[in-house]
Design brief:
The protein has 16 helices and 8 strands. The protein has 390 residues and is α+β, with helices and mostly antiparallel strands. It has 2 domains: 213 residues, NADH Oxidase; 91 residues, no CATH class. The strands form 3 sheets. The protein has a 4-stranded antiparallel β-sheet, sandwiched between helices. Helix 3 runs parallel beside helix 12, helix 5 runs parallel beside helix 8 and helix 10 crosses helix 16. The longest helix has 27 residues. The protein is globular. About 6% of the residues have low confidence. Bound molecules: iron/sulfur cluster (SF4) (2 copies).
Length: 390
């Protein structure tokens, strides 16, 4: 079954009350209405509170770049109009990088495909695209063959290219999926402005790299489409799992053996002939049964304590997206505590990780070492050097 992007909490939160889209969505999904309205009210109150303490020193509201401004996501990137000059300067770092990523993404979308197709064996081409990403500083990358259920069925946001509710009918065979690791110094301060900045910088970097990779592929004579924060065509965590970047953990994100869940994911969809990678199993599902760090650290109990089994027999943990979003709203558009809590996000002994599958003793050793070093989780209270004092 394909996921419908309109069902994501992000999409639901952006529906304008009283619009045709709003009425239509909730007439078909009445069960979501009350909790979504509560979230909308909380968001509104939070924004009003920020605006209410303004004392005429407004520095203006900063948004993402051109493409994003045209989408309905722009409120995500606002900066408190009451921010200090120091805070304003720090946040411009992120906004300028978003603008750069946005303009490169536009360039990739508008670029024509080279009419001369380069004939390269799929295995060689897979090595080349991975080398391209390695030269961009990224080593968590894989290729997935796109199956009938891997892309969203309908658009949940309006963008320059699509309208809300449009069916997604894309004919691409492969997805090159990669992960951009977020800085530990930032995520270990979660929930905080540092966490929010790192998430936005991660989105920007992943979008920029996806755009450059799409241009490279178009120049080789094959169509390519970015699947990044400027427009996701897929529930990307599942594509990442299929491409072998990691396994879905208790935290409801892909956990990579090297970077844990402190990543932002993006992909390029293409018909360039490639050799697909397979899923990996490094024993994460069993590890998550023992670990529970994300569950125990989540302040709103959004992470399940009991596992469920999917139709295809895979273990997964239900996620309370509403509670999670409420926490995001309350803490200023981000939380990320579960990223800092995951042992793999902090870096685990690679040799032990390579031996942990089917070895409860090795798993226990990893957890013990993690607890000795970080306790409940690695939390840094002081702001980063360049951030304004709290
Ligand atoms: S982001 Fe925060 S609220 Fe959401 S699941 Fe993680 S720890 Fe819980
Ligand atoms: S914190 Fe532990 S339980 Fe949660 S996803 Fe990471 S490994 Fe799994």
């Amino acid at each position: 079954m394909r996921y419908d992007e309109r069902d994501t909490v992000f999409s639901r939160l952006l529906l304008k009350i009283g619009s045709n889209e709003f009425d239509e969505y909730y007439s078909q999904n009445p069960g979501n209405k009350q909790c979504d309205m509560n979230l909308k009210m909380k968001k509104k109150e939070k924004m009003a509170k920020s605006a209410g303490i303004s004392n005429g020193k407004s520095k203006g509201i900063l948004f993402m770049g051109k493409s994003e401004e045209k989408s309905q996501n722009k409120s995500i990137m606002s900066i408190d109009p009451n921010s200090s000059d120091h805070e304003y300067a720090a946040f411009r770092l992120m906004v300028e990088y978003q603008r750069l990523a946005s303009s490169i993404n536009d360039e990739a979308l508008n670029m024509d495909v080279n009419p001369t197709k380069r004939n390269i064996p799929p295995e060689t081409m897979s090595v080349l695209v991975k080398e391209f990403l390695k030269l961009s500083g990224l080593d968590a990358v894989g290729v997935a063959e796109i199956g009938p259920d891997d892309l969203y069925s309908h658009r949940g946001f309006s963008t320059e290219l699509h309208k809300y509710g449009d069916e997604i009918n894309l004919d691409y065979k492969y997805a090159i999926v990669f992960a951009v690791p977020l800085e530990k110094d930032y995520i270990n301060r979660a929930p905080s402005k540092e966490l929010f900045m790192s998430a936005m910088l991660g989105y920007a970097k992943s979008s920029e790299v996806a755009a450059r990779l799409a241009m490279y592929i178009k120049d080789l004579g094959f169509d390519a489409l970015t699947d990044s924060s400027f427009t996701y065509h897929s529930p990307i965590s599942f594509l990442a799992e299929k491409a072998g970047l990691g396994q879905m953990g208790r935290c409801n994100s892909v956990v990579n053996p090297k970077y844990g869940n402190r990543t932002k994911l993006a992909a390029v969809l293409t018909n360039l002939p490639l050799a697909a990678d397979g899923k990996i199993d490094f024993g994460l599902k069993e590890f998550c049964e023992l670990c529970r760090r994300c569950e125990n650290n989540c302040p709103v109990k959004a992470i399940a304590s009991e596992s469920s089994t999917s139709e295809n027999g895979e273990k997964y943990w239900k996620h309370n997206h509403i509670s999670c979003m409420e926490m995001w709203i309350n803490s200023g558009n981000s939380c990320g505590i579960c990223m800092s809590a995951c042992p793999f996000s902090q870096g685990t002994d690679e040799e032990l990780v390579s031996r942990m599958k089917d070895s409860p003793g090795v798993m226990a050793e990893i957890l013990e070492k993690h607890s000795e070093k970080y306790g409940k989780r690695n939390y840094i209270k002081e702001p980063l050097d360049f951030m304004p004092p709290k």
